[in-house]
Amino acid sequence: MQETMSGVWGLFFSAFISSTIAPGGSEAVLAYMVSAGSDDVQFLVFVAAIGNTLGAMTTWGLGALAAKKFPVATLLPEKKQNALNLVKKRGIWVLFFSWLPVIGDALCFAGGWLKLPLLPACLIILSGKFGRYALVAWVFV
Asked: Are 79 and 100 in contact (CB under 8 A)?
């Protein structure tokens, strides 16, 4: 039981870190745990999606804090400037794609910068992240 819980916490932290600026391999951790068959697949997908969403919301919060200190969008690096323009143009639903490598973090940051509504943003981000992890789990079952 102790081993299982440490593995689940490892998955959670890997997913959290993967959704912030730091690189991570949460998909590989999930794939390993699913293929090992040590835990319920639905539970593992849930843990990974929650951890990854909390990491994304941390990035969203950093964007909101940055907007207070630096209200001029031109101070952003080009990658985040592109994401900011995309979120402005397409709206809150673009946050569904926050699971994408490279641009996903920038989309979350832009959502916070633009002060998009917190709860809808969180739910949209969660749905995208959950879908990605469900697909990874399905491939490795």
From this structure: no
Q: Is 40 helix (H, G, I), strand (E, B) or coil?
A: coil
Terminal-to-terminal C-alpha distance of the chain: 21
CA distances from residue 96 to 39, 84, 127 in whole angstroms, order as listed? 27, 15, 7
Query: In the predicted model, is pLDDT for residue 2 greater than 60?
Result: no
Q: What is the pLDDT of residues 20-35, one digit of tens each?
A: 767 678 898 999 999 9
Average pLDDT over residues 6-32: 86
Contact indicator for 111, 85 with CB cutoff of 8 Å: no
What is the 8-class DSSP label of residue 100?
A: S
Hey, how many other C-beta atoms are within 10 angstroms of the C-beta on 57?
20
